[in-house]
Write a structure and sequence with these properties.
single chain, 61 residues, mainly alpha, 0% strand, globular
Length: 61
């Protein structure tokens, strides 16, 4: 799924466009790392960018 649909968007913009914003933050609230990672991958984020995002929201892989 690497079609570059989300180029130039922030993480939150990507999540909003994909209609995953609320689900992502619910996963964060529930400390569900696997679900959060899954959603970040759906919006075309790389492994390298996912770890700092998880850290910024208080989750760790």
């Amino acid at each position: 799924m690497n079609n570059k649909k989300y180029i130039g968007m922030t993480v939150n913009e990507r999540l909003c466009v994909a209609k995953l914003y609320d689900k992502f933050y619910k996963a964060v609230e529930e400390k569900n790392v696997e679900e959060a990672v899954s959603m970040l991958k759906k919006v075309e984020l790389t492994e390298e960018s996912i770890d700092p995002i998880l850290e910024s929201v208080g989750l760790f892989k």
